[in-house]
């Protein structure tokens, strides 16, 4: 922690107690002493089971027992809230800023302010499109493009297994928040993969905003517009759960009448696979806290880190879901 900040904090604690919170952040109770590393984390929100697990990963990692004080801010899906949070972190002279950006663009000014203040910025989960990549130290997350490509590869293999490889296949796509790197990468991987197979027709693509309610709403509209949907790609599990509800309400059997492929692979996705309602879940590992901890500890020891750091991810379906469910931490 910055020395001046530590002295101010210690004085405030001695002279009457201080509740440490930053701007719109919910704040964490301040701990005595000036030896803790202060991390400001600007989270997207709490739109999904995946995001909840991601937040908990940071909250459980960046604790005083591990040498940290965490200042957490929930942006509620709004970029302007994240920008305000980052500026609050800068004003509080934190040691590191971690951001899971709502969208990819519009960050140059505030990251320039962080750079001028000498505060390293680590990106988590989603990426940013910047004209100057020195504005952030490194990025930790999933390979979204690969996730999208892997999902189509799984579909190709599955259709071959069930004897439908040569049939015309109509597809709809429930996209995530438009402009987020998860949406951009997964959409690109899916659409490129579909285009390689002349039997596939993409009927429609529309955002479900990574939420279950919106996923159900959009799937309902797809079902009204098209009576011959064979496959649904949902760019996160919660949208897939909403799609399952819509399919059931339409009198169809999810997982049988309509093949459903989702992303994230939270525990509930495993339950849905085992129940036969979901066919495949491509993992997007939310446990970024330990990896960011490793990065910070390396930097504190005078080391260097790679710019891009992917987390390990897998793919799950009826062949492995039941066996692996007990091992899932989220």
From TrEMBL:
Keyword terms, alphabetized: Signal
Matching Pfam families: Peripla_BP_4 (PF13407)
GO molecular function, one term: carbohydrate binding
Places the protein is found: Cell envelope
Domain Periplasmic binding protein: 48-282
Entry keyword Cell wall biogenesis/degradation: no
UniProt GO cellular component terms: cell envelope
Record InterPro entries: Peripla_BP_I, SBP_2_dom
Record's keyword annotation contains Signal: yes
Superkingdom assignment: Bacteria
Signal peptide: 1-21
Classification via PANTHER family: D-ALLOSE-BINDING PERIPLASMIC PROTEIN-RELATED, GALACTOFURANOSE-BINDING PROTEIN YTFQ
Family, similarity comment: Belongs to the bacterial solute-binding protein 2 family.
Name of this chain's protein: ABC transporter substrate-binding protein
UniProt source species: Candidatus Avitreponema avistercoris
Organism ancestry: Bacteria, Pseudomonadati, Spirochaetota, Spirochaetia, Spirochaetales
